[in-house]
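Exam revision sheet. Question 4 asks you to relate a sequence to its structure. Input first:
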Amino acid sequence: MTRVSVTYVSYSGLYLLTLTSVLLSSVLVVFELHHYLVISVAGFLMAGYVAGALHSLKRLDNVLADYPTDLRVLEGETPVLSLAIRAPHLELLKVIKADLACDAGLKLSDYSVWRNGQVLEIRMNLNARVGTHRINTLFLRFVVLGGLVEGLMSLEVFTEVQVLPRFSIGVAPYTIPGFRHLGVGPSRVRGPGTNIFEVREYMPGDEFKKIDWKATARLSRLAVKEFEKEMHRDVVISLVLSDKFFYPESKALENLLREVCKLALGLLSNGLHVRLLVVTERGFLLSNKVTSISRIGELLGVLSRIEWPERPLMTYSALRVASWLLLPVVVNTCSVPCAVVNIVCLEDLSDVEAAHRIFKKLKTLAHDVVFVVITPSLIDLRLEEVTLEDLSSAYQEIENLVKLTRKLPNSIVAPDISNVALNKVLSMRATA
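Answer key, structure tokens:
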């Protein structure tokens, strides 16, 4: 059963028909044209029937409506919502407009309506952005008998639309060969570590503690050991989204999520394990630890569950929520020190303070932390066509971000998130 209410009815046309019938009947009686009274009587009967039907329609409370409760599509595909509504007197209605009560990331692009007796079938093509959307109510504006009566009907519809980001693993990302699959892995790059990379001849300036005395005795000349640089095995990506990313006129959210997917792919290609935390103004999402490229679909599933707001908020608290939420996630994910990539949008000094708390807590536990600072306009500036007004706005935001990031250690302003963050992580050395 679906709850239905007729919230508005205009009887102006019906009143006009009744008034015309009364006047016509009076004229016919005065002039004794009784054989024409059947016309006015028919007008009265039609008005009465329509009024009675609309009175029943306004008292509808048990209407059968068949519709899908969830729709799942890929980015770029068109979700289609089909409804079949069964109720008495629906054959009188002609739907002239349909609309949906939903969030800012979902729009009704077009629709078609069929009537089959007391069954009203509606097919709606939707335009949906990446993430999760909820449809609450369907509004139908209708007319009866060519416009004698106009009305607005609302039906409770509970449908969830989920759009997965479109991401193809077509280009092999930058990789460093030779990673191990337990704990901290080698990079096949010289640097601090415990595994021997090579033994070479002593060069002026080499540290004496690196001298390999056994190799020196065997070769009859000084030889030193070079070690492999050790790198993290686990990486936690923390994506903090303010509602600035949910304005319907900007494609920044999709472009940002695509960069996050590229970053995750690059890390997985280098043998690292990835866990994703997404924090918004409406809550948080957390993936399982992904250990191979074949399971990257789990990360796409998490990104598709990001909820769109009905209206974007002008207050931002997601980063402050992340400041106490991230630590238990990292502790639960990493048994040894790991790398934590924070993708954030800094609005003011309170956000910088929240990011500072994240940095201090994680560094105390010997984790490596990097902040990649972005804004929607900065992402659009790189990936979308922009106007001079957009350039001016982006310049002001970048100027403000640069000032804020000077107060935050190990932070960088960069729209090219995937390459910058990947290089940062691969250059880190575990301290465990």
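Marking note for examiners. Confidence is low (pLDDT under 50) at residues 171-189.
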